[in-house]
Amino acid sequence: MGDVEIVGMSDRQTGTVKWFNDAKGFGFIQRESGPDVFVHFRAIRGEGHRTLVEGQKVEFTVTQGQKGLQAEDVNAL
Q: 42 — phi, psi (to 5°)?
């Protein structure tokens, strides 16, 4: 354990930001199909202060982290 496993490495998914705590730098994305996934600000594409807004549409890759599914390479649509 401890390794990060890419689930469908090239499979980009879309979803909607369920909530994102800007102060803590994390939140959850509701996928179009499947369970919600955790998102950390470091997984968001961009420079400077990276954040997401509730209801925002995003595209991302899902990975299996130590505590469950998480979004990586998150891009706002």
A: -65, -20
User: CB of 70 within 8 A of CB of 63?
Assistant: yes
How many domains does the chain contain in total?
1
Which of 38, 22, 68 is CA-nearest to residue 60?
A: 38
Predicted TM-score (pTM) of this structure: 0.83
pLDDT tens, position by position, 29-69: 999 888 999 999 999 999 989 999 999 999 999 999 888 99
Would you say residue 45 lies in a domain?
Answer: yes
Q: What is the residue range of 45's domain?
A: 15-59+68-76
Asked whether the beta carbons of 39 and 56 are under 8 A apart, the reply is: no
Asked if the structure places residue 4 within a domain, the reply is: no
35 in a domain, yes or no? yes
